Amino acid sequence: MTEKDCSHHEDKRQRLYRRIFAALLALIIIILFIIFLVWIILRPTKPRFVLQDATLYSVNLSEPNMLTTTMQVTVSSRNPNERISISYEKLDIYASYRNQQITLPTTIPSTTQGHKEITVWSPFLNGESVPVSPYLSTALTEDQNAGLLLVNIKIQGKIRWKVGTWISGKYRLNVNCPGYISSGERNKGIEIGPSIKYQFVQVCHVDV
What we know:
Elements: H1 3-42, E1 48-62, E2 66-78, E3 85-97, E4 100-101, E5 106-108, E6 111-113, E7 118-121, E8 124-131, H2 134-146, E9 149-163, E10 166-167, E11 171-181, E12 190-192, E13 195-203, E14 205-207
Antiparallel strand pairs: 1-2, 1-13, 2-7, 2-8, 3-4, 3-5, 3-6, 3-9, 9-10, 9-11, 11-14, 12-13
Subcellular location: Membrane
Pfam families: LEA_2 (PF03168)
Main location: membrane
């Protein structure tokens, strides 16, 4: 075979590779365009969370700057989408006071939420002898004397969007639910034995 024939075969092989690459690239672009088009048409809306109530069992401050908190909260989530399901994965819920976590994270079971569906969770939140900063101890004492505590219930985790058999990648979910608790005024809540239940129906801030 002459050098000219080898060069001819090499050119044909390169043209074949270029055509295969162009075909694969075009296929990828078409798939991405279809996904983008479906996304634009469906327009997924982030879920809506509501803090419904909180049952406070104890908020005790001991020396030196140790805080013990026990409470149960009821949080609901609504999927506002008509054609998109939401899959909740690895959700953790905990209580925070003045931007400091005061209970251990409690894991919420993974679940899939259908169209316009509402899911309700009622986890217990516990923090036994959690060390807090001195300024937080002072602030807590002042708020308790004033009769009003602002405790934030926070949820962190990951969600996926589902349309038919198509499932999106994971998106980070951050939920912040402010709850004002009237300490020292039992008539502000419902007495349940030694505990007090406070009803809020407080809309939460949701970031996805």
